[in-house]
């Protein structure tokens, strides 16, 4: 039987990147939100952003991934607790996952003080979230099914019953199908196909916890 880590069935995330800007006592805050799948993707976006805004005073950020509940944030030289954690607070307030928010500051000559500075970074993150498209994504597993030709109609029948998505027929010496299926439907599919094929079927889990 299959065993799963306790990943949620649904997550809220952003559909695409979005950017907002505002000024606070002369300082310009540029808030950007990005959809991400892993920390490598987040670090690449951070690297590109630092190059783009190389002359900025600070590039503060927070990201949150559903995988291993990974969280990372940085004040990037701002007073401790005024930036990264405030951006993360905004992510948590909207219950988002698989997002990166970067708040870039161009210092305008007037110090804001710790309280107002923290509020400015929080507002920078919130404004980016509010202009982005927040969507709900569903947890799927990606599987590969290998079977005999005479099983083709059975396989398609059970896949349709199980609500499989992105069904791709791969032509090889034997028929193969790659698709996405909800984890809670996977064991039933395996049981049904194994029974009807008398065990002459091979199902491989390629990836888990893909949010579509």
UniProtKB/TrEMBL annotation:
One of its GO terms (cellular component) is cytoplasm. One of its GO terms (biological process) is regulation of translational initiation. Coiled coil: none annotated. Transmembrane segments: none annotated. Pfam families: Impact_N. Residues 25-128 form the Impact N-terminal domain. Belongs to the IMPACT family. This is FIG000605: protein co-occurring with transport systems (COG1739). It comes from hydrothermal vent metagenome.
């Amino acid at each position: 039987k299959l065993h799963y880590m306790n990943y949620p069935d649904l997550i809220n995330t952003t559909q695409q990147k979005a950017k907002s800007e505002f000024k606070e006592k002369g300082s310009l805050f540029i808030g950007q939100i990005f959809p991400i799948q892993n920390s490598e993707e987040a670090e690449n976006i951070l690297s590109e952003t630092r190059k783009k805004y190389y002359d900025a005073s600070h590039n503060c950020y927070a990201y949150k991934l559903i995988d291993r509940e990974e969280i990372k944030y940085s004040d990037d030289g701002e007073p401790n607790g005024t930036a990264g954690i405030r951006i993360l607070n905004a992510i948590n307030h909207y219950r988002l996952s698989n997002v990166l928010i970067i708040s870039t500051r161009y210092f305008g000559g007037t110090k804001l003080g710790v309280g107002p500075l923290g509020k400015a970074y929080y507002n920078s993150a919130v404004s980016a979230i509010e202009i982005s498209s927040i969507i709900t994504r569903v947890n799927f597993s990606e599987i590969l099914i290998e079977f005999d030709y005479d099983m083709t109609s059975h396989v398609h029948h059970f896949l349709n019953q199980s609500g499989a998505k992105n069904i791709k027929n791969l032509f090889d010496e034997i028929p193969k199908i790659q698709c996405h299926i909800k984890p809670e439907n996977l064991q039933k599919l395996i049981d049904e196909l194994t029974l009807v094929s008398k065990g002459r079927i091979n199902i491989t889990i390629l990836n888990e916890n893909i949010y579509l």
